[in-house]
Design goal:
Blueprint: H1 7-15, E1 34-40, E2 43-49, E3 67-73, E4 80-86, E5 91-94, E6 103-110, E7 117-118, E8 122-124, E9 132-134, E10 144-148, E11 154-158, E12 171-175, E13 180-185, E14 188-193, E15 199-207, E16 213-221, E17 226-235, E18 241-247, E19 253-259, E20 269-274, E21 280-282, H2 286-289, E22 297-299, E23 306-310, E24 320-325, E25 330-335, E26 341-346, E27 352-357, E28 364-368, E29 374-378, H3 380-383, E30 385-387, E31 391-394, E32 397-404, E33 409-416
Antiparallel strand pairs: 1-2, 2-5, 3-4, 3-6, 6-7, 6-8, 9-33, 10-11, 11-12, 12-13, 14-15, 15-16, 16-17, 18-19, 19-20, 20-21, 22-23, 23-24, 24-25, 26-27, 27-28, 28-29, 30-32, 31-32, 32-33
Length: 418
């Protein structure tokens, strides 16, 4: 999950590199900015960030470029010079673009007698900005990874500042009708709601003595305020993982990703647990397919397919989003790009996918399954902070927890999709 929330760390890892002096005998080279982007009605703003404060360079360090060439493409294949810029430009607003059309930008740093250096590539789609509003909850504490029950009365969340301070991995429950908050469990791996009733599923881990840990799959009944263990396992392997438990659309099964064999390295498989027969069933063969996934998936409306993030190159590949059909075990690419794409959430009518993708910032995107078109819904520059996992409030709105750096708190917002 953190892979899609901490964009600053991603930027540091991308640009904290050193140059091999054997490839540049004079040890002279240029720095190039990190690009970000923002969009509006027929407009795009490109942001240029100097990476030198966070990057490591071979001494004596990079030289200043004489200028930048900003390049533009409409197909990610053919780039052309759009504008020559001063080397210390921090932003540029571009107007008279077409709404709904993808544009790609990158820059090359230029200086006489030195090799040009290229930047990262950003993608943006101009459109009229979506309406963003604070969700009307009267709270004065952080609500991270907030998930609402289907009737919107209850919200499960994490908080590190509730009641004067709290373990950030404790799962809390708020009754929005009374504002009463209670603790469901400690050291929890994400809670998700049953779409048919007010029941919450979550994974947890506790000490089993010595170097042993006990991993449990749990269900919490709101009406009775009780938790029930579905199954558990004990292991000394710290890399055991039970990730992202979800109810299937009919509410009769719980699905989850499980990695319980670490001899071959990290490899999660998808399982379901039948709530009536109490039998687990592995429904994927990701190891045989060479597919790697680490947590983000969502069921389609019929329960015959789900959408899952992952890749076929764990060392170098970007995460893309695939449709997985348990009956045939087939993985069909749906959203592929040069950028990571993750945490898909399917609209109530099954026609759209909301997801997170770092194509020029920390944005929320919408993919239309009927038209195969993308829409850039919001970026950090619009949201005022980092968004967490999107959840559909209805067919026209998303509920998104956003980290507001100004007040050091997660807040719940709604964003209009249409």
């Amino acid at each position: 999950m953190k892979k899609y929330l901490i964009v600053e760390l991603l930027l540091i890892s991308l640009f904290s590199c050193t140059l091999d002096s054997s490839e540049n005998p004079t040890n002279r080279y240029l720095w190039v900015p990190i690009l970000g982007s923002g969009m509006g009605d027929k407009t795009v703003t490109i942001y240029f960030t100097d990476p030198r404060p966070i990057a490591n360079y071979v001494a004596p360090g990079p030289e200043n470029p004489e200028y930048f060439n900003l390049l533009i493409s409409e197909d990610l294949v053919k780039f052309k010079i759009f504008q020559r810029l001063d080397a210390f430009t921090d932003s540029l607003k571009i107007t008279n673009l077409s709404n709904g059309k993808p544009y790609y930008f990158k820059v090359s740093a230029q200086k006489k007698n030195l090799d040009s250096v290229g930047s990262n590539t950003v993608m943006t789609i101009p459109s009229i900005m979506s309406k963003i509003e604070k969700y009307s909850l009267d709270v004065n504490f952080s609500m991270e990874n907030a998930k609402f029950s289907s009737d919107r009365r209850y919200v499960a969340f994490y908080s590190d500042d509730y009641n004067g301070g709290n373990n950030a991995r404790d799962l809390l429950l708020m009754d929005t009708a009374t504002n009463e908050v209670s603790t469901i469990a400690q050291d929890v791996n994400m809670g998700n709601w049953n779409p048919t009733k007010n029941t919450l599923v979550y994974g947890s881990s506790t000490s089993a003595g010595g170097n042993l840990s006990k991993y449990k799959l749990m269900v919490y009944e709101v009406e009775t305020k009780t938790s029930m263990e579905l199954f558990s396992m004990v292991s000394s392997n710290l890399l055991i993982g039970l990730v992202n438990p979800l109810f299937t659309p009919d509410g009769k099964h719980v699905s989850y990703l499980l990695n319980n064999d670490r001899s071959e390295g990290v490899r999660y498989e998808l399982w379901t647990y039948d709530l009536e027969t109490k039998e687990p069933l592995k429904i994927s063969n990701f190891e045989g397919d060479g597919f790697h996934t680490f947590g983000g998936y969502g069921w389609g409306t019929t329960g015959s397919e789900l959408y899952i993030q992952g890749n076929y190159d764990i060392q170098h590949g970007e995460d893309n989003i695939y449709k997985f059909e348990p009956d045939s075990k087939s993985l069909i690419p749906i959203i592929e790009s040069l950028w990571d794409n993750g945490w898909p959430s399917i609209s109530p009518n099954g026609t759209k996918i909301a997801f997170l993708s770092y194509r020029g910032g920390n944005p929320v995107w919408i993919y239309d399954l009927e038209t195969s078109k993308l829409r850039e819904l919001a970026k950090m520059t619009m949201l005022g902070g980092m968004p967490s996992l999107p959840q559909w409030a209805d067919g026209d709105h998303l509920l998104i927890p956003i980290y507001n750096k100004g007040i050091n708190r997660w807040e719940i917002n709604t964003i209009a999709v249409e």
